[in-house]
Sequence to fold (624 residues):
Amino acid sequence: MTWSAIRSHGISYLIVGPFAIVLAFPFYWMLTTALKTNGDLYNLANVPFKFTTTRGDPEGQSPTLRHVTFIFHHTQYVRWLENTAFVGAMVVVITLVVAVPAGYALARLSGQLGQSVGVGIFLTYLVPPTLLFLPLSRVISKLGLEDRLWSLVLVYPSFTIPFSGWLLMGFFRTIPVELEDAARIDGCSRLKALWRVIFPISLPGILTVVIFTFSLCVNDFVYAISFISNSTNRTLSVGVPTDLIRGDVFFWQSLMAATLIPSILLALLYNSFLNRFIEGLTGGAFR
Amino acid sequence: MEAAAPSRSRRRWGDLFEERRFLAPALIGPAVLFVGLLVAVPLGLAVYLSFTNATSGSLSGTWVGLDNYIHAWDSSNFRTALENTIIFTLASQALVVVGAAILAHALLRPFRGRWLLRFLIVLPWAAPVALSTIGFLWIFDSQFSVANWTLVHDVMPGGGHLYLYKPANWVLGVIDDLPWVHTGKIDPFNPPQWLGQATLAKLSIIAVQAWRILPFATVIFLAGLASIPPEVEDAARMDGATGLRKFWHVTLPLQLPIAIVALLFGIVFTATDMTVVYILTNGGPFNSTQVLTTWAYQTGIVSSSLGQGAAVSLYLLPALVVVTVLMLRFARKVEIG
Fold:
């Protein structure tokens, strides 16, 4: 390595390092907290950044996994994970069925009017759930979907379709038209060309959309708290803050473990697909 | 080759699908329908509800005109909520824009360990907001706050007597007379109540909002930097533009539109967010940290006054319209650039 390379790397570390520490600290703190015994956690004399085992602690050695396993065996946590996965999967399917054709059409087929429609769909993404949850809670109760996961399956596509459609449009634009033209010269219809040629090439892009759609569903709090009041039908985002906190009693270790597990999984996925995500953005909106 | 009658009719259907004028609407139609039914219709319903005295018990309220809007405006909690929404949004997004600009530039070039560092940076964005906010609830705990522990304990290993609250108090001594500070100095035996004191609670909310939006803004900034063609960089280097000058005359003008798009997104995400305030303070202490969204939830769902709640949340609409118009202008600019 040359001197200037070392210097420029050093500057990168100096800038990125502190940001990374501040941004990731809460998660480090969740991990540390999740593994402590009550005797360790609630002793003000202990240094909070390390594990201290007090002699005669009924929970034994600190660190311990007992509070982490607690949420899996004695709370509805697993149920909420399942609920979240179910809603996420259903919404992903609906979103793909609706948004893939729309994204393709917006990238390739539509004229001036189509462009405006595309922009219009995207702008609905700016209409926030906090503005719609009151009337929608009305609609949901009219439809008899109160307290049911299907209410979320119905409503979530209202924000996943605009977001995914826009991103998919970006991916489709990065695929050269010539590929499609070649397929059509070989006798494929437009739809067949879309299915046989475009779809396989854009699979990474579609996978990116799947991940971000899913995480949008996991993230929602407003709809989930307004439509569902039954503990067993809750999703992760609402179940953990409302049911793991009983009155004023906070089971901090369990809460932190419950938070950390989905966060880490989602962050791993995000980071792996980040370059694709940027590609979709730059191919579409910011070309 | 295919002369049979059924295949001819299939042929005609196929031709229809070859026709752009038919295919494009057929492919876009479902998306428009879905979004129209689930966004446009409820939005209209929200506007309608805000003009009625509907409660969550009965579907049909009677028309009350602008009463809900006037009633909301007259309430002091609403004024606080409106003010807080504006302050929280502007303050957090100012932090975000500065942070994201610096971070995106530093992350652009590859270096060893970038994947790991980027993973750490992406974490707040990937984590479900409701859950990560619980993490902050613990960090700002009234008794066991790690922030307070770090402030009032000797952080120098080996008893070096480095207490962080001392320099913090010097700063507070200078700024505490400003009208919006008034937190008093930090007392090591009675450390700050981050969520129990109005000013500190507001600062905590701003910090959490900035923390969760920063990674997203950084990614958008990165996308903007990545879309600057390498030829432009080369040309700038040929002309002898380096460092700050290159940033000012080349990178900044090219990046400005996308930075503004990221900022507008950040504004929308923060101003319309309910989760952070709901979980962190639930509007407290004494409704001092209410924002429009939590106040709408409080009136519309908790107090069951659907019409009034809708009116409160619709006060967000003018701001959203402005953002939308700006977004359209700048998104187009980005597309040209």
In short: Confidence is low (pLDDT under 50) at residues 1-6 of chain B. Chain B has two domains: 1-50, 66-142+193-336. The longest helix of chain B spans residues 76-108. Chain B touches chain A through 103 residues (CB under 8 Å).
